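Input/output pair, single chain:
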Amino acid sequence: MSEKNTNGKPSRITICVNGKDYPCYPTMGAAVGFNELTGRDIEDMKGTSDFSKYIYCCARSASRREQVKFDMSLEDFCDGVLIEDLNKLQSASSKSEADDGKKN
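Output:
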């Protein structure tokens, strides 16, 4: 997991899966994908399992948006992500949301 900032653009979060970085950030497609996968909205997420599913949807949607090949199943994705990286991503997401709150 890392944040990238290029040419003054907002930081971009990526996640490392099996040694390869993929874009991973919230999109409308990720929210819809999570709902289709779980039958619930992202506001109703509970626990690590739901967060993992949401991150999968974020990576899949962001990759599709950036035309990055992403052909993993949820199981393959979860097997390829270390819990410590998931925790770092959660911290980075929280930091980004806090920074956005300061700007408003």
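The beta strands are 2-4, 12-17, 20-23. The longest helix spans residues 83-103.
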